[in-house]
Amino acid sequence: MSDSPIFLKPPPRASRPPTAPQRPEPKLVDIVIDGHPDKVPQTWTILEACRKRGIDIPTLCYLESLTPVNVCRVCVVELAGARVLVPACSRPVEAGMDIRTDSPRVRLARKMVLEFLASSVDLSTAPQALEYAARYGARPERYGPPAEPTKAGERDGRAPGHHHPPDNAAAETVAQPIKIDNDLYVRDYAKCILCYKCVQACGSEAQNTFAIATAGRGFDACISTENDIPLPESACVYCGNCIGVCPTGALMFKSEFEMRKAGDWDESKQKKTDTICPYCGVGCTLTLHVQDNRIVKVTSPLEAAVTHGHLCIKGRFGFEHVHGPEPPGEV
Amino acid sequence: VGLFGKPTVINNVETLVNVPLIILKGGATYAGIGTSGSCGPKLFCVSGHVARPGLYEVAFGPTLREMIALAGGVPGGKSIRAVLLGGAAGAFVGPDKLDMPLTLEGMRAAQASLGSGVIMVFDETVDLGEILERIAAFFRDESCGQCVPCRVGTVRQEESLRRLRSGRPIGSRRQELTLLGEIGQAMRDASICWLGQTASNAIESALATLDPVPENGRQP
Questions:
Q1: From A172, which residue of chain B is nearest by alpha-carbon distance?
Q2: How far apart are CA B20 and CA B42, in angstroms?
Q3: Alpha-carbon gap, residue A104 to A106, rounded angstroms
Q4: Chain-wide mean pLDDT for chain A?
Q5: β-pairing, A222-224 with B41-48?
């Protein structure tokens, strides 16, 4: 025994690596999916049980790294004997469930949800939603021509519980001017389907910043900063996690937005390279989207173990210095 | 979960007020009030075109006709066009249903529901289509906006109804009515809560039996 103080002596090496405590295996329950019996763990949702069978249930507001909120209602399935359809993404399985994933009621509900969205929201940068709409035969033209877009701030300023009666000719939409109030990303709420993923990512599910939340009520509900203040004045820390989870492109890198506007955005010319962020010791995986030898966008893979797709401002937006100084004469 | 982290029961005042009655009178006596399928007293809110609108307490059993008579009948000797049972989320019945017993089992047999106990009487002077528009506007205002079927469905329902009423359906009248039916079914099947699930009840019940938006524009 040396006489050096205890805090200078290294601790003994662990005899085995630390592991989580042993948990009992979840019980298996018997369910029936589309006529086929199956046994799945009690803790699974209907969506997980269906995916295990290879059944493709459409989802819009569901993401594996976020708590399901079951608001889009496109994943609804029919349970034999139930009064209403149930959301597969959040409903846990129970013994004896008889699940129908493709009944007439299910197909009508999905078609109508997609029609409602396609007739009121700009889905042009939401290829998954458009594919579902085609799959279920959604015909948004059934509701008439879209109404004139609202002016900036008009939807944000509406009082809940009052609305002007429709003018009998047009279908109301959420179309409105794009919010461009900072240099890093733009918010185009004409494309927002209120899937709530951005609020979750900004809030308790990832960033714990709570800069944005749902404001207003009913069809006038929208995602907003407090009192609709510009983003630089809000609590936003520009981690870009909201952009990472947005399924429709309502939240978009300013670089991508500018290139799309100029007609230069071309995903077929882009190369995606995974690397580790250089800024700190966490070691998030960055997927750099490179077009014409310039980084145009940064994402992070959902499967990456460290942060499951979430980044911070440094990893998300701190790449301009890679391109070197601009040649003299260019802005 | 629950209030203050304790198990919690949420009930109507009307339900809770029955509890001391059961305790004081005893279960058997209480069960003797009303009918075999619906026991105890019931509060009915009778309103609309009746001489004495108000809250009426009866033992379960009176028919719709008897409740309207209790409230003084329709003033001016006018005939009944429709009765809304259960409020905005309820269903319309026509004057041919006045002898239906307002009991739980009677309503179930008629595929209707007592709902909140509202009995709203509309006489022959009413434009039923306008009432439906007000109900559609109500549901659009009250939708919380969380789920797609109700947030957008209530808007599309109001738009469709107004197009029908103004005589400018998209495509044919039949296509517009089919659209209304599909909107109603999507809200009923896929909404998160009862608001969306009942948003089309009143409208669909009226369209099914009462011709509220006649093709020629005149009320029957």
A1: B155
A2: 15
A3: 5
A4: 94
A5: unpaired
Residues from chain B that touch A218, judged by Cβ atoms under 8 A, are 140-145, 151, 154
Taking an 8 Å cut-off on Cβ atoms, the answer to whether A116 and B153 are in contact is: yes
In the chain, the amino acid numbered A131 is E
Q: How far is the C-alpha of B202 from the C-alpha of A318, rounded, in Å?
A: 57
Q: Which of A107, A74, A111 is nearest to A90 (CA)?
A: A74
Q: What is the pLDDT of residues B26-39, one digit of tens each?
A: 999 999 999 988 98
Separation of alpha carbons B88 and B205, rounded Å: 12
Whether ipTM > 0.85 holds is: yes
Distance CA B83, CA B102 (A): 13
DSSP three-state, residue B187: helix
A299 neighbors A255 (Cβ within 8 angstroms): no
Angstrom distance (rounded) from CA B168 to CA A228: 38
Among residues A266, A271, A306, which one has the least CA distance to residue A285? A306
Residue A109 forms contact with B (CB below 8 Å): yes
Spatial neighbors of A199 by CB under 8 A, at least 6 apart, are: A212, A213, A214, A223
Of residues B215 and B85, more confidently modeled? B85
CB < 8 Å from B in window 32-91 of A: 70-74, 76, 84-85
3-state secondary structure of B104: helix
CA atoms within 13 A on the CB side of A226: 7
Name the residue with tokens 């389907």: A193
**C-alpha separations of A146 from A119, A213, B13, B165, B174 in Å:** 7, 27, 45, 20, 22
Cβ contact B145–A163 (<8 Å): no
Q: What is the pLDDT of residues B98-155, one digit of tens each?
A: 999 999 898 888 878 888 899 999 999 999 999 999 999 999 999 999 999 999 999 9
Using a CB–CB cutoff of 8 Å, tell me whether B192 touches chain A.
yes
DSSP notation for A129-145? HHHHHHHTT--GGGG-S
Q: CB contact, 8 Å: B65 with chain A?
A: no
- Closest by Cβ to A113, choosing from B141, B143, B186: B186
Question: Residue A41: which H helix or E strand, with range?
Answer: strand A36-41
The answer to whether B84 touches B92, Cβ cutoff 8 Å, is yes
State phi, psi for A279 to the nearest 5 degrees. -80, -35
Is residue A226 helix, strand or coil? Answer: helix
Strands A294-299 and B41-48 come out as: unpaired
Q: Which of B142, B157, B152, B148 is nearest to A173 (CA)?
A: B152
